[in-house]
Amino acid sequence: MKRFERLKEIQRLDPERDFLEIYRLTVTYEFPWDVTRALELALYRTYAVPSIGRLLAETAELTERPQKRYDDTALLLDTVVEHGFDSEAGRTAVRRINRMHRSYDISNDDMRYVLCTFVVTPKRWLDTYGWRRLSDHELRALAAYYRTLGDRMGIQDVPRTYEDFEQVLDSYEDEHFGWDPGARAVSDATLGLMGSWYPRPLAPVVRRAGLALLDDSLLTTFRYRRPGPVARGLTRGALRLRARAVRLLPPRSTPRYARQNPEIKGYRDGYDVARLGTFPTPGVRGCPVAHGRPSDATTE
Question: pTM value?
């Protein structure tokens, strides 16, 4: 297969009807490494909204058990990609996501914003560091995929098009980004987790590289010192060089799912989707009751 053959395959599909197949081809064949990094950054962005970052700090999942939280989040989201929304595994994954969220008092606006990060951040990452940009077909399928996920999660007023997702994200960040000490602790724990994936002497380098990838709005919100031009130039230049190299490689012949990534550390012997995630105990670390959220029986 030639380098752009899969893109031609994608463009023969209908982005509204075949959005799952298009999204699966895009994220597991065309950009598996890039989309993994982009979704990590997408979730990281959400910490800068104090209501989100503070809750994550209160649950202590990302500060005390960051690897497990990373693994569970990646595997639950990827189960839907691999098996589809209407498969038993996909329905179980969405049900787990919903039950965890409904254990806490999370506003619809915050939930919708998080969903927007999953759409906008990968597109912006690939614009800058991908071996090619997403096609219009892929953008339409991306929006349709996350519209469907948002509907299954019971999120209200989900954006319809990519442009709608982008507008909601930008306006929400402009209005809500702000300092919170708990959110900063979650940010530090996340950077520490990423450093732990490499030999110990490289951990400070990984942290500096991570900071070099953050935009000024995130650096200001978390009160990090702005990386110098050398650190930013080397980090971003290395990613662009990687993109050029990937463009010259033959295309993938098999899909790559999150469960195959080396960053997933906690399930070497396999896992049960129904047991992934947290099972909050009433009265422990956060609000255990759902406030105005639909019941599990009505939305999966």
Answer: 0.92
- Structural domain boundaries enclosing 135: 5-189
Instruction: Let me know: does 38 contact 121? Beta carbons within 8 Å.
Output: yes
Rounded to an integer, the average pLDDT of 100-126 is 96
Angle, helices 50-59/108-129, rounded to nearest 10 degrees: 100
Token pair in block for residue 35: 């989309």
Q: Is 231 a domain residue?
A: no
Number of domains comprising the chain: 1
Q: How many helices (H) does the chain have, and how many strands (E)?
A: 14, 0
- Range 217-227 burial, b when 16+ CB lie within 10 A, else e: ebbebbebeeb
d(CA 27, CA 298): 30
CB contact set of 44 (below 8 Å; sequence gap of 6+): 187, 190, 218
d(CA 162, CA 133): 14
pLDDT band at 282 (very low <50, low <70, confident <90, very high): low
**Residue 82 covered by a domain:** yes
Rounded CA-CA distance 18/12 in Å is 10
Phi/psi-derived region of residue 235, left when phi > 0, alpha when psi is between -120 and 50, beta in every other case: alpha
Q: For residue 119, tell me if it sits in a domain.
A: yes
Residue type, 16: E
* Burial classification of residue 21, based on how many CB atoms lie within 10 Å of its CB (0-12 exposed, 13-18 middle, 19 or more buried): middle
pLDDT tens per residue, range 228-243: 999 999 999 999 999 9
